[in-house]
Amino acid sequence: MKKNTAKKILTEPKMNYDLNLLQDMYKKMLLIRRFEEKAGQLYGMGQIGGFCHLYIGQEAVVVGIQSAQIDGDSIVTSYRDHGHMLACDMDPKGVMAELTGRRDGYSKGKGGSMHMFSREKGFFGGHGIVAAQVPIGAGLAFSHKYNGNKNVSITYFGDGAANQGQVYESYNIASLWKLPVVFVIENNKYGMGTSVNRSSAGENLSDRGKAYGIVSEIVDGMDILAVREAAIRAIDYCRAGKGPYILEMKTYRYRGHSMSDPAKYRTRDEVDKIRKTSDPIENIKSLLNKMGVEEKILKDIDTDIKSIIAEAAKFAQDSAEPSENELFTDITIN
Amino acid sequence: MTIEILMPALSPTMEEGTLSKWLVNEGDSISSGDLIAEIETDKATMEVEAVDDGKIGQLLVAEGTEGVKVNTPIALLVDTNELPHTSIKNIAEKPYLEKEEIQIKPINEKSISIEANSSLITVREALRNAMAEEMRTDKNVFVMGEEVAEYQGAYKVTQGLLDEFGDKRVYDTPITEHGFAGIGIGAAFGNLKPIVEFMTFNFAMQAMDQIINSAAKTLYMSGGQMGCPIVFRGPNGAASRVAAQHSQCYASWYSHCPGLKVVSPWSSKDAKGLLKSAIRDPDPVIFLENEVMYGQSFSCPNDDDFTLPIGKANIEKDGNDVTIIAFSIMVGKSLEAAEILKDKNINAEVINLRTLRPLDTDTIIESVKKTNRVVTCEEGFPFSGIGAEISALITEKAFDWLDAPVTRVTGKDVPMPYAANLEKLALPQVDDIVSACAQVCYED
Ligand SMILES: Cc1ncc(C[n+]2csc(CCOP(=O)(O)OP(=O)(O)O)c2C)c(N)n1
Ligand SMILES: [Mg+2]
Questions:
Q1: Mutating which of B10, B171, B422 best tests the A interface, going by the most A Cβ atoms within 10 A?
Q2: Which of B64, B220, B335, B410 has its CA 20 to 30 A from that of B111?
Q3: Tens digit of pLDDT for each residue in A87-116?
């Protein structure tokens, strides 16, 4: 797979962006990062068990896309899902309480980190089987089209997932039936310990839509404004009834695949370099600085977010375990 | 503002560690992501990385200090307005890709007697040795699966195989189970002997069609021409706290199907002897391992030619009062239960099935005739499970010998919950076996 640089054309000069919008995006990205750092700590303290996949480094992807959505759009993703839930405005307390396996979690403690849902917020999971969410996302798009509403389905999956057969079965049907689905490939360069070059033939993952007549773009996923603008193009296209759209986001995960990843498949330098030169949060922070936002305002944002996260962590540790009766509930509806 | 940097925990089970090395000095300015120290536990060496910017004010714990408790302050960070964070990064060998190894209580490792010409090795090592030995003697044996080569296996079962056998014999596949299972089957039709690792059997669901419709049935449909000498192996059953999609026992699924052989080892000896037989077997073999067992040690024969027959169960403990029939991890739990039952004056016989298809009917029936009481144990769901099959078998073949209904100990009939308390309730425990045995002996 050849390395490809993403399109860098922004339709609007950065400095013309609405300050409130930028600040909101900054806040959300920071919320996700602080949440994930806290989740990492709670894992170390034994409060979270099993698998815990952090989203640190990839924040611009979900926040940029979310900024282009409207109410009623549906979202579905993999097990690396905490960021997506926070971007959907799900309550950090409920998400954190699910991570600790408590009754106030979004799945009453039965799902854990990888399996959380909120019908109210249009978040359809949290799926633990690589690529299983892709046809599900196309099916959600089917329901939007069937109901004649203008909503779209945003379907996220990883570079590793992009090789699964069901992705291509979904591409084919989505294109054939003109389903309003944006397929977002979060290409963070690795699926566990395997780099995209070692797992994927051909030049670009996004090219694979061509065979099915699906329009695609490669986007710098570390630049939230590039993400937002690409998302607007993709979502407009889908809403107009023209069929699916593929966005390949070039992004990077800073942390291990899950919590104790020996990380021998990449160098420390590689991680450091990306963190130092293209951190999505630092990027937007320096834009805000350039636009004249005072340091004090940014500090206050940070302080607010830290208290939200501290509260969520406390809530998640204080919430009780699910009652034993819950073992046998929710298996079938009746 | 000054904050304390705390001794981090690598895992839920880590309580203390050695602060082996400071990578910063007092007065150094650090920024988030910088490495500040190395710590060691019995399992691993880790790097501690700062998540905040600031200046190291003071190092509170000297280099080389052992037994530093998790969460004790190890340094002060000054000139910062951040909350304390530290994160850790593993740099040394650690067996599992995703999470801490769960140590279930070994049946007192020290008391394990090592048999003649045997060594104490883990189930993981036994599996690895079995593959390596067969690969040395048969050039047609090769291994493929996700992360099996460069990464050395997600659970380190294939450690070292790439180094020894090279990339013509050991293949990292993309995450495409249906595709690579089918490719393995095609290669087997072409007279090769693939060992296909599923990272866990939960993911083999993606490949179910190829396993059942192609691997299991083609010999029959071809009038005996198209043998399929393939092994599908990987961890099966419950792992710790990974919830419903990653924690299921598929023993009864595969055992249902004619054309497959289904094997499920418990000890290192089982693992080595049965895996070697599976690789040599001319039919498709589903080889169900257990993640929780990988780190456990048992006496295991050194002989490169040691095998155990497929289709033969083993009596792990003799007894007269009740027969406990188990496989995989449940064998250990059954032996523990048998110990406890001694105090109740119940002498239990424990059968380790080893193979689920073909089932060793003779050993089961013989034992029933001796004890007249049976308890079956499995992690899987009760409905249409292995226990149900055994119960039917005994009803058909030894009904008159029974003094009590065959009783099943199984996982609960629910998807595996994540919450710690519910997960414990969902899984069959030693106590459940003890009470089921007491019940069939009318002793409760
Ligand atoms: C069908 C299936 N096979 C294997 C796994 C184990 N597994 C979990 S995540 C993962 C890597 C996925 O990589 P990618 O799609 O790039 O997503 P990322 O983790 O980078 O977000 C693998 C192999 C799984 N969960 N499901
Ligand atoms: Mg990836």
A1: B422
A2: B410
A3: 999 999 999 999 999 999 999 999 999 999
Contacts of B150 in chain A (CB under 8 A): 193-194, 198, 265
- CB contacts, 8 Å: A331 with chain B: 413-415
Summarised one tens digit per residue, pLDDT across range A277-292 is: 999 999 999 999 999 9
Residue pair B260/B204 in contact by the 8 Å Cβ criterion: no
B349 has catalytic annotation: no
Please report which ligand is nearest the Cα atom of A257: 1
Residues B175 and B268 in one domain: yes
How close B330 gets to chain A, by Cα (Å)? 21
CA distances from B326 to A2, B25, B251, B352 (A): 52, 57, 12, 5
Quickly count: other Cβ atoms within 10 Å of residue B426's Cβ: 21
Q: Among A241-245, B74-78, B268-272, name the one with the lowest average pLDDT.
A: B74-78
Q: Are residues B209 and B354 in the same domain?
A: no
- Give bridge partners of residue B315 from the DSSP assignment: B351
pTM of this structure: 0.90
Shortest CB distance from B243 goes to which of A115, A199, A322? Answer: A115
Residue A141 in any domain: the answer is yes
Q: How far apart are CA B335 and CA B42, in angstroms?
A: 29
Model ipTM value: 0.93
**Run of H or E residues at B374:** strand B374-377
Whole-number Å distance, alpha carbon A193 to ligand 2 midpoint, is: 9
* CATH label of the domain that carries residue A70: 3.40.50.970
**Domain finish residue from B277, B301, B325:** B301
Q: Which residues of B touch A321 (CB under 8 A)?
A: 419-422
Backbone torsions φ then ψ of B48, nearest 5 degrees: -100, 130
Q: Is the CB of A34 under 6 A from ligand 1?
A: no
- In angstroms, rounded to a whole number, what is the distance separating the alpha carbons of residues B417 and B410? 15
The yes-or-no answer on residue B246 being catalytic is yes
Shortest Cα–Cα distance, B13 to chain A (Å): 7
In this structure, are B331 and B206 located in the same domain?
no
Residues B288 and B318 in one domain: no
**Strand segments (E) across A57-208:** 74-76, 153-158, 181-187, 190-191, 194-195
Supply φ then ψ for residue B324, to 5 degrees.
-100, 120
Question: Packing angle between helix A280-290 and helix A19-44, nearest 10 degrees?
Answer: 150
Q: Does residue B172 share a domain with residue B139?
A: yes
Residues with CB under 5 A from ligand 2 (ion): A 158-159, 188, 191
A277-280, long-range: CB < 8 A, 24+ apart: A278/A222, A278/A223, A278/A252, A279/A57, A279/A222, A280/A29, A280/A57, A280/A58, A280/A59, A280/A60, A280/A221, A280/A222, A280/A223, A280/A224
Structure tokens at B63: 């280099």
CA angle B284, B286, B291 (to 5 degrees): 155
> Is residue B44 very low, low, confident or very high in pLDDT (cuts 50, 70, 90)?
low
Smallest CA-to-CA distance from A157 within A86, A260, A249, A33 is with A249
Which residue in the set A102, A260, A324 is minimally distant from B425, CB to CB? A324
Q: Which residue of A has its CA nearest to B13?
A: A46
Q: Do A322 and B422 touch (CB under 8 A)?
A: yes
Mean pLDDT calculated for residue range B124-129: 98
pLDDT tens across B242-255, in order? 999 999 999 999 99
Confidence at B92, pLDDT banded by 50, 70, 90: very low
